[in-house]
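Human: We require from you a standard protein entry with sequence in single-letter code and fold as tokens, and nothing else.

Assistant:
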Amino acid sequence: MSPSAKSLAAAAVLAVCSASMAQAGTVYIPIPGVETIGNVAYEVRVSVTNPGTTTQSLKMVEIKTNTDGTKRNGVTPSTQAVQAGKTIVLKPSTAPGLLEISAPAGLELSARLAGVGQAAGLGTELPVITSETAGAANEKLYVQGLRNSTTRHTDVIMVNLGKKAAKCSATTRRADGTILVNALSLNFPPLSHARFSNVFADLELDDARVEVSCNSEFFTYAQLHDATTGEFAVAGPAGGSDSALFAPGEENPKNVCPVGTEGTTCFTWAGVVHTSTKSNPVRHIYPPVKPGTYRGVHIRLEVDVNGWNVDHNNTGAHGVLYFVRNGNKEMWASIFFRPPGRNILGFRHGFFKTHGEKISIDRPFAAQVGQRYEIDYLYDTQTDNIELRILANGVEVERIQSAPDVNSVVIGEKDKVWIGLSNPGFFPKPEPYSRNWVYRDLKVEFFN
């Protein structure tokens, strides 16, 4: 879950970002396993709306807590049709679990734990976990604004969304940052989840938080319940401040395209774009740029350096950005970091040149593990200027300047713009994949 994709109302009574619009594919909804709190009864209600013009069907599977959700022997998904223009309400089992819904494009899903009976309250939203709201491997999610007392207790739910076993760590803190429980290490089966009950015991706490990280795609949230009032609330992962929104009078933010250019000459991918792993080392992106002649290109990207892959080569170039037209001989940029032992920022560019003929600039640069770097790259044929800026925490830490070797940026009808994040990791070629690096908030603009 990229910071800009996660929303949370973190207050005394918490409702999460869970009435999320689900894309085509599979979503997961945690079932709290709550039937009554005090004298208030509850049930889970999943609303599914089909705004389209044809009937659509979805499939559902309920995964039990603390079980391997990839084992499907003897499991038959149930099917539910949703007629055009209508909303249906699903009421899954009240037992704690994880509801898996596979649906076609166009359906809208939300979930609630709703109060029933005369003492019923308004209830609360439940998370709808999608690829956008999930946390990436090695990312840290914060569930905050948590209140606890002798009658109000907090449960933390962790979900391993990966198809392999995962290891997670969890730390709880007071509002002043002091640690309550330090870095518990937890193992999870594939596609599994667990509830950790009453994590703060009977401590009197305001604005406490839980910090969770896993080596697999994951999700976490908290359930708060008050035995005296019967209230139930949900707190989801906190949102980051690197939002694409901007206040009146501020400069248009870095990851927003000018009006009318999105999808033709300007392309954005908000949040996590790629996490480099052994099974998925590199991502290739081919934006369909509108054919034409352009003055230049501008690309922005953020990358989290989460360690070095030196299994085969102690000084191998870890790919940050590969940006070409058609292939390696038509290159706007190849940018990479080398690990300790070389500590280099490498930059290559050149059109209609072999590898050895390209302009090559290396600078001493010690990329720090755990640091997020912003790549700001400008290729301007009108001003005869190439500028590569590397920033950390908004401060420029390195700059490379060069000059284009072509007079314009031409995109023909059959040309393919090709963006590569990380390396494929093939050996003996000395190009390790950038293991566990996270690439996010990519913007590419072709401008006149």
